[in-house]
Design a protein that fits this description.
heterodimer, A: mainly alpha, 13 helices, 79% helix, B: 273 residues, 10 helices
Chain lengths: 307, 273
């Protein structure tokens, strides 16, 4: 296990190096002068442009700039936002909690809907239950989260008045965003659970358990489901990343504070340091979360760490 | 049984094709009864009825006509985005899989880095570099799908390279270029078609999302994601403004996925999960 952990951690280093390089180069890939674009809305003197250039260290050799970028990032310094004139790291810190809660709640929704749906479909293979469950999953995959959000607001806020339509905060504010965001992941988990469950139900050990006279429920839950969920665990990391990125859209729908709103606002106002910092943060978090998921997977399934 | 006959037997795929055909038919210009951009303040926020089949928006524009034009925009955006992804990803995967070695390692490490940006984040980053707009959204959505195609093609090539007929072609003195095109490329076509069809739906969803955020299509162009965000403040008084474009996205993506699933079952059953 330890060698596996070491190997996996080592493999992350070049990826993270590439991520910093990609995010760093964003400023150089912008067509035109990034400083002039950032300051486009203001009336500026050449002196101010030069000062901004110096502030962003754009007047130094590129290698120096990159070294400074990585060094600062490692110390938690992601530069200054141009609009708010506050440290990017502070802005991220203030918005992280809200997005983190949303992503976690969406994951809970995805599992709570997806696993039972897949289970029902597998147990009733080819029956109308299967067709219905997989039909729901098909719709879920094709559903734009922003539209689902609107429908939820329309029904539960405007008509029934049960839940607040917008804003961040306590649990009632979290329910609809989590459902809107978690639905696609739920559909993917449902399809995966179904196919994985069907495979496991055909295995010898399930037949043995049945032959021992165990009841249907015990066989399904204790013998089949536990093994069927192993491949499902692997998509958690991937799906968590999708949820983190999907928060961009859902936070806008529900006017909820968070990293997503932060990044969209930064893009629209050409606040490049804030865009770079947030993108770098989310990508790094995603890579590290996947390492943790891989390790959990290796822990659950010994075949992984040997192979 | 030919592939076409097998596809006809797929009920889901047929349903998907039917929806797509309806969409394309509906997207024809003569069906949009009114100019989708012309505003008429006095006819704002009319509910669906005889005058406006799907209602009118806050500027008095016909929602039905805008949804119809939006279908064209979305289909075009999907096809162009996926074409960009395939045109870049497939050659990278071919070269990477066939030659192997350092070139393969380099290409795949670059792809790993691109895959480190989850979901729509890579497209967002690319749009922020290129500046918002529908054209740049197509580039961004296309580029962010490149690693998926490169990896798929590489994996297929790695398997195909081991076939005896490839070895035979090489033993007969065939050149790399010829072997790649004649012997290996045909193996790649089926999974590529399936993945690209399934990718169309995803591309349309991503592009609509970016337009919804205000980073894609700019007003007054009728685009589904944009229309949804414009109807946002009128959810209470005029549900139809944002409901019909959303339905358009859902149906289009659903149709693409159904067709893709059907194609996969027929052309490449191994891909089935």
């Amino acid at each position: 296990m330890l060698t596996y952990v070491g190997r996996r951690l080592l493999a992350v280093v070049p990826v993270l190096f590439g991520v910093t390089l990609a995010v760093f180069s964003m400023l150089f890939l912008v067509p035109g002068d990034p400083v002039k674009i950032m300051l486009a809305e203001f009336v500026t003197t050449p002196d101010q442009v030069a000062r901004m250039r110096a502030q962003l260290h754009l007047d130094e050799p590129v290698l120096h700039q990159y070294g400074r970028f990585v060094g600062n990032a490692l110390r938690g310094d992601l530069g200054m936002s141009i609009r708010s004139r506050r440290p990017v790291a502070t802005e991220i810190g203030e918005n992280l909690g809200s997005t983190g809660r949303l992503a976690l709640a969406s994951m809970v929704v995805a599992i709570a809907l997806g696993v039972p749906l897949g289970l029902i479909a597998a147990l009733g293979r080819n029956s109308w239950l299967d067709v219905a469950a997989m039909g729901v999953a098909l719709l879920g995959v094709a559903m734009p989260s922003f539209w689902l959000g609107f429908l939820l607001i329309f029904v539960f806020s405007l008509h029934l008045g049960w839940l607040p339509a917008t804003g961040g905060g306590d649990l009632p504010h979290l329910v609809m965003p989590a459902v809107a965001l978690g639905t696609i992941a739920a559909a993917i988990i449902a399809r995966l659970t179904r196919s994985s469950m069907l495979e496991v139900l055909g295995q010898d050990y399930v037949r043995t358990a049945r032959a021992k006279g165990l009841g249907g429920f015990a066989v399904v839950v204790r013998h089949a489901l536990r093994n069927a969920l192993i491949p499902v665990v692997t998509v958690f990391g991937l799906q968590f990343g999708n949820l983190l990125a999907g928060a961009v859209i859902v936070e806008t729908v529900f006017s909820r504070p968070g990293l997503g709103r932060l990044i969209v606002g930064a893009i629209l106002s050409k606040d490049f340091p804030l865009v770079q910092g947030t993108v770098l943060f989310v990508a790094t978090a995603y890579v590290l979360i996947n390492v943790v998921v891989d390790m959990a997977y290796a822990y659950v399934d010994p075949r992984i760490r040997i192979g | 049984m030919t592939s076409a006959a097998a596809l006809v037997r797929q009920r889901g795929a047929m349903l998907g094709l039917l929806i797509l055909a309806a969409l394309v038919a509906v997207a024809a210009p003569w069906l949009a009864a009114r100019d989708p951009i012309r505003t008429a303040a006095r006819e704002a926020l009319q509910p669906p009825g005889a005058r406006f089949l799907l209602g009118s928006d806050q500027f008095g524009r016909d929602v039905g006509s805008r949804v119809v034009y939006g279908a064209r925009v979305s289909l075009l955006v999907g096809v162009i985005s996926v074409s960009i992804a395939v045109a870049l990803g497939a050659p990278l995967g071919l070269v990477s899989g066939y030659y192997g070695g350092r070139l393969d390692a380099l290409i795949m490490r670059v792809m790993d880095v691109l895959l480190a940006f989850p979901g729509i984040l890579l497209a967002l980053a690319i749009v922020s570099v290129l500046s918002p707009g529908l054209g740049n959204v197509m580039i961004a959505v296309g580029l962010s799908a490149v690693p998926g195609y490169a990896r798929l093609v590489r994996a297929t090539v790695l398997a195909a390279r081991e076939h005896l007929y490839v070895e035979a072609a090489r033993a007969l003195g065939g050149r790399d270029g010829g072997i790649l095109v004649r012997d290996i490329l045909p193996n790649v076509v089926a999974p590529l078609i399936v993945t690209a069809t399934l990718g169309l739906g995803g591309a349309i969803l991503s592009a609509a999302a970016l337009s919804f955020l205000g980073l894609g299509s700019q007003p007054p162009q009728p685009e589904w994601g944009r229309m949804l965000s414009e109807g946002r403040d009128y959810l209470r008084e005029a549900w139809w403004i944002s409901t019909f474009p959303g339905l358009g996205i859902l149906l289009t993506v659903l149709a693409m996925n159904l067709v893709g699933d059907g194609l996969r079952d027929v052309l490449d059953p191994r891909l089935k999960t």
